[in-house]
Here is the input.
Amino acid sequence: MTATDHALELVRAAARAASDKLATNIVAFDVSEQLAITDAFLLASAANDRQVKAIVDEVEDKLREIGSKPIRREGERDGRWVLIDYGEIVVHVQHEEERQFYALERLWRDCPVIELPADVTSGGAVER
Here is the structure.
C-alpha cells in the first residue's frame, strides 16, 4: 500500500506552505506501509520559535484553503516542535535543535521519500 493521491496533494501543499515561510530541510516520507494511522510524514525545520509558529500557521491556512482541517495539534505552546495531524498526513515542524536531536529521518529512513515540487526549497541537505 502506498500513500493516497489525496495524502500526496496535502503533503505537496504543506511543503509549499512551509517553504514559503523559509522552512529548511523539508522532506516527506511515505509511511503507509509502516503505520496504519497515517500515510505520510512531512518534516520541516525552523531557526527559532517564532518561525516554527509562522510555518505552522501557513501550513494550516494553505491546507484549510483546499478543504483540510487538522484533527489535532500538539506542542504549539512550547514552539519547539509542533505536530499537526491531518489524519492522512502528519506535519512535524521542529526547531533545528529538536530536529537534530530526535532525528526523525533516521527513524523513517527505510520508508520511501516523497518527491516534493520543484518550487519547494529544502534550504539544506537532509541527513539520512
